[in-house]
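Fig. S4 source data, part A: sequence.
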Amino acid sequence: MEKVRCYIVGAGEFDESTLPLSDDFVIAADGGFVYLHERGIEPDLIVGDFDSLPAEFMDAVNRHPNVTRVSAEKDDTDMLLAVKEGLKRGFKSFAINGCLGGKLDQTYANIQILTFITDNAATGVLYGNSSCVTAVTDSSLELNPSNSKGKAISIFSAEKQARGVTLSGLRYPLTDAVITNYYPGVSNEFTEELARMSVSNGTLIIIWEK
């Protein structure tokens, strides 16, 4: 079966409702291997320096046929290395679990990775227990979450400015607006089942309630 999406698991907050599909290429990023192993899910690839992997799981990692080991002294996080492995294999869609919650610096780094994904002409979503995060660069996005009406959605500029921002299907719409990276775009909410967000120049970070 041809793999159509790259599903990556990190060591952060794990969303039980977002498990890999049968046609996903599954990557365990370091301690994310624990979540998969405990659920009997065999990853296609394991990546990491394994500084966050409990010692009792190392035997299972060592037996795996496809492991990319890296030094703990590196520029990229294990999650970014996993994303690069997915991009190298030609994937244009990423579902990333175990990436929110936990250490604030790691969560922020994972949100930054979304902009790296869009810069490589791909799309990615971070999944947590209570929220999801994605990024849009010079493009548009339609969201239709289940039972979305009244749920919160927040929209931020990842750069100094995002131009041509248009929002519809939300309580506070915008038309061809400019927002900045210090604009607190929190606590908007869905008013329709379908919401549309677009930006003509810049990158938006979009966070919504599950």
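Fig. S4 source data, part B ends here. The chain has a mean pLDDT of 93.
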